[in-house]
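hiii, so i know i said id send this last week but things got crazy w the move. better late than never?? heres the sequnce for the chain we talked about at the cafe, plus the structure i predicted for it. fair warning i was half asleep when i ran it
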Amino acid sequence: MEKKPYEVLLERIEQADHVTPGNKEGLIDFLKHEHPGDVLFTKWDYPQIIKRGKGNRVWDVDGKEYIDCISGMSAMNLGHSDKRIADAMYDQYMNELDFWFDFPTPERIKLVNRLIEKTPGDFPKRVRLALSGSDAIENAIRIARYYTKKQHIISFYGAYHGQNSATMGLTGSGRMTSYYNPMPSQDNCIEHFPYAYCYRCPYGKEEGTCDFECVKIIDQMMSSGVTCMGAPDSGICNVAALIVEPCQSSAGYIAPPIGYLKALRKLADKYGFLLIFDEVQTGMGRTGKMWCCEHEGVAPDIICFGKALGAGIPMSGIVGRAEIFEDVNVSFICSTYAGYSMGCRVGNAVLDIIEEDHLLERCTETGEYLKQKAEELMGRHPIIGTYSARGVYFGLELVKDRQTKEPAKAETHEIVNNLRDAGLLVQLNGYYGNRISFIPPITLTKEQVDEIFAILEPEIAKTEAKI
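okay and structure toks below
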């Protein structure tokens, strides 16, 4: 009989001779008593049992120290154990209000006004708070469809917008999709197009020579009248919104060329649908600006955010043009914990720290140094086919041959595991499993960049020598 997925993982851990005792014991218990999915086991051959963290460091149950370049998938942008966050939580719980359902509170009103001020767009706005990135995306899609009275949503291959029944159709993942059958969210008017992944342009263009073919093809399909997206000659557009990550995160930290978001804004304005930016990972300072879309000066109709706003506790939301919300009934969205007082207090503390510590400026400066180090690394190692770097948003793509661009999938997996063993935690991902994402706290310093590359380069060289 074929083994169950968790049995395969359990056997792998039980037979492994390189897993330290505390990690092995914890992982065996974890796999025997909880259904873990398998995402942790797709990043390494086994994950660590992490016990504590401080700054940009974490320690596992056996006391091994790691440089954290995962940061809870960009949830811990401020790093671990910032005392100002802990003090805010303690004060809110003990001296103010711990929880009061989905009602307005002083901290909530304060946070909403700050988010309106800090999000791009010189127009009246409204806010809807939520808990997870998936919640935020679902709210954005629901409200876009309600406002426009249209159904079709344009998304992109390689996108990750969540993995619940409402958002899975937007997420371009064959592996995840296989677990949803039927999937009404995907069957219900989702249109996918290639992203601006210039290193592997599906239209055969060389990097730097294209005129945004990936945007032109959407325009061509919408203007033709032969797709279900609309019939321009009859004045019909069936598209409610286009949702896009300003940089694709779970696909491998892929940054599109500057001008891409402007081209999408122009397309949305041409056909009259809404433009939604998913900044759940790119937002809150990671790219050196509060929002990644600010690199192009483009304001979406709705912006989605999450993860880093909560500094480790659930917090997310959307900000959109005020008129989009105007006809929505008060019972349209209801959630027990949305806008909860503790989350709003922490969100305000996060915004305070970003301002007080000048983290956007610091992240930009560190990002320039990181880009320089990446360029030098690529010059010494042909296994690196390309890289993306904006602020401390950093991804590497590994290939067996730069001419053919054959993905170095096995080699990338080996390097990620070896980096873990050497004390550096990074994320394995990419369209072909050959990209490495580095997601450090945005508090990263130049000295810490040097530490990262001091571990990274020897492991790349060691694996590269085998090709």
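btw The two ends are 37 Å apart (CA to CA). thought thatd interest u
miss u guys!!
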